Amino acid sequence: MPGNAPRESLRSVLANWAQTEGLAWVYIFKAALAAMLTLWIAMRLDMPQPRTAMTTVFVVMQPQSGMVLAKSFYRFCGTMVGLAVMLVFISLFSQQPVLFLTATALWVGICTAGAARNRNFRSYGFVLAGYTAALIGIPAAQHPDGAFLSALTRVAEVTIGILCAGTVSALVFPQHAGEQIKATVRTRFSGFVDYVCRALSGRMDRSQIETTNAAFVTDIVGFEAVRSVAVFENPETRMKSGRLARLNSEFMSASTRFHALHQLMNRLRETGSAVTIAALEPYFREVAPLLGKSGEPVMNAADAAHATAQLAAFKAALPRRIRVTRTELEARPGFAQLEFDTASELLYRFVDDLLAYTQTYASLAVPMHARERWFAGYVPKTNLLVAAIAGLRAAVVILALGAFWIATAWPSGGTMVLNAAAVCALASASPRPTLMAFQMACGTVLATIAGMIVVFGLYPRMDGFLLLSVTLVPFLLLGSYLSTRRGLAGVGVGYCIFFCFLAGPDNLVHYDPAGFINDAIALILSMIVSALAFAVLLPTDAPWLRRLLLRDLRREVVLACRGRLTRLATRFESRTRDLLSQINALPAARPELRRDALQWLFAVLEVGHAVIDLRHELSAVGHDARHAAGTPWRRAIAATFAAVTHLFDRPDEARFDTALSSTSRAIADVRTLLDTAHPREERHRLQRILSHLHFIRTALLDPQSPLEPFAGNAREAGKAREAGKAREAREGAHHAT
């Protein structure tokens, strides 16, 4: 036994290394293998610039097969679009350098804005549409007579690189995004169940709840990114893509609903609503055991079917049980009926959302299922102004460098301009574009030194592809290794791409030291200028960007009040999480700023979700005279929507007071109508409307909300008014005597 302990320890260490650092080394050797395979094929096909195909490998190579295929797909689409646009520009402006560079700058600016607006690998298609136009057009414009053949040759070289990267990634020790999705689904379900159990039992403080919800946001955004590339890997993932998107959406809805329920119960505890809390806590304790199988946590989709059956039975019996409890409590002193109705309504809706989430999870156990029909996808979008600024910045850089090229007639000026187009587009999609461009410049400096050694020191002393491979592989492995290090990823990307650009062999090698140095200077200068542009022209770490994104986050409540109801909840959920992830990715996102953004997320989700539920209830009311849009209670609710919209658009004390008073007035009007309502279904619907209005009011008055300063001022003003009324009453009594 003592001898087995070291052996077990070594085995666990090796297993852990294989799952972490080992996977990085697999990727490093796969990248080098794909690059050399691409170089060999391009040389065998007698391509004029095999280094272009080799460079493409490092541009599209990713650790997972689905990522490579997705990136390759969008790169090919972007390449074809860029080719078509540049052929048009060459035919129109090849004899006018200023007009040609201006048109190219505008096109690159539009593509860069598109890349900044659309994230994940979809943005890469925009990057390539702009970069390919510059890559093909700028050299071809100098020799327009061979522009068409040159463009087609460049596309063929890029295609070879794409195919080789995808083939090596899929066949050699493949790593599939589908496996990551399965692990994420299992981990997230068990983590959410644990969160629900701990929060309902009171074992989580505010900081733990915030940390958990922040992790949920990261998980939601990352899950959608992985799902979007996993569909490229195998038919099974494509068959379940709709359910996976639905699972992400239903998880967002369930987590939002639970947070609202948990916050409401905390408010009831603070206000001393002991009767309501004691009546509902037994129901809360029943929820957690339903999310397991035979007392054990759910481990896979098949086990989730048992939890689904238990939740469905609990949900079916819940309304009748709640009504019985409510009847028993009505005669008790201190019973706040509206608080009980609001909390019980939230409980029912949480169970309903949790059931939907569990049903979709259980459906993943079979290849085909009716829940696959899901059309409300998660679409990440960047603020239009931010995207436009990114495009304008790229256009300015291209125009400035183009003007320098025309003024100096520098032979490597074209290289400088086309590389600036690539760097601006690639870096604009990064949360820290200045650092990314600077790191790429450092990688290019390293690539220049390595390239000089290879081109002028080693190439003249070798013959044959075998010796060429032995020479290049160590240098390629160095770049791939750097790209896998978290703090040096930009250095590795710059090294890999521009080592191939500078030192990649062509079928006819030219030993031109002056040209090599000129190209290297042009590459480094374009990156430095790009980094300066990102640092000076409306930088992403400036406070204005955070304020802009925070306003976008708050304005999601405006969407909830005014947007079209069809699939509104899904759009609202995904956009709020996506905006928070953008805010947290900003370079200046300090812990206190992250916490502030998370507080606004909670406030937006609570109020926005309640508004959407309220609008759904209003859309289902009858069309008789008592429910018409012009009735006092409908006008009061419309005024509440308008006041809440104005409050979250630009929060201040006056708007807060207006929102609070409008909500209170709407509650009073609905109560008046409820007293005269007779049909059972009508009363239940009005009770639900009343519950949503009451929840909006409690969310506005939440002491942990970012609106608390305005609420505090409102409470102080209310106390002052009450004191004034009491003083006037005393003075009136004094005068009367």
TrEMBL record:
Domain of life where this protein originates: Bacteria
Compartment(s) where it occurs, according to its Swiss-Prot or TrEMBL record: Cell membrane
TM helices/strands, residue ranges: 24-42, 73-92, 98-116, 123-141, 147-173, 384-407, 437-459, 465-482, 487-504, 516-538
Membrane topology listed for this record: Multi-pass membrane protein
Entries under Pfam families matching the protein: FUSC
Composition bias type Basic and acidic residues, residue spans: 716-737
Chief subcellular location: membrane
Keyword Magnesium included in the entry's annotation: no
Annotated InterPro entries: PHBA_efflux_AaeB/fusaric-R (IPR006726)
Alphabetical keyword list: Cell membrane, Membrane, Transmembrane, Transmembrane helix, Transport
GO molecular function annotation: transmembrane transporter activity
Chain positions covered by the region annotation Disordered: 706-737
Keyword Cell membrane belongs to the record: yes
GO CC terms in record: plasma membrane
Official protein name in the record: Fusaric acid resistance protein
Organism: Caballeronia glathei
